[in-house]
């Protein structure tokens, strides 16, 4: 009889955990949702110019950008610079973009090519 009660108690304890786990991920996913900001060509051109400028400043120092045509703004911060195994100079950057209703961010990588920092994968905020 004691074995049965112990097994039943353990089963009830585990059943409670299983129930909590099914609720957890959906709540976490909802809390982790980040608003997307679509960048148009004028935003990308301004951010690209800011990336070139940020690359000349100190690592860790944000360089602000603003697009007066649509009111979007943000900053580019170089996180670190270094060489890849094949000798290519690259840097990791943090991009922030703001609108009146949302804020989005991206960590990306840009490498030096033909005298210019070119982001790998482009700027991927929004669609």
From TrEMBL:
Surface antigen domain sequence ranges: 40-118
Annotated signal peptide: 1-20
Alphabetical keyword list: Signal
Highest taxon above the source species: Bacteria
Official protein name in the record: Surface antigen domain-containing protein
Species in which this protein is naturally found: Skermanella aerolata
């Amino acid at each position: 009889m004691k074995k049965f009660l112990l097994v039943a108690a353990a089963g009830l304890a585990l059943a409670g955990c299983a129930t909590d786990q099914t609720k957890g991920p959906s709540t976490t996913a909802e809390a982790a949702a980040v608003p997307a900001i679509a960048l148009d060509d004028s935003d990308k051109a301004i951010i690209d110019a800011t990336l070139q400028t940020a690359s000349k400043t100190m690592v860790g120092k944000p360089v602000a950008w603003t697009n007066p045509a649509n009111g979007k703004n943000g900053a580019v911060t170089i996180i670190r610079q270094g060489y890849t195994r094949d000798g290519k100079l690259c840097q990791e950057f943090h991009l922030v973009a703001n609108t009146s209703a949302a804020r989005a961010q991206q960590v990306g990588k840009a490498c030096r090519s033909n005298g210019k920092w070119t982001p790998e994968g482009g700027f991927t905020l929004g669609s």
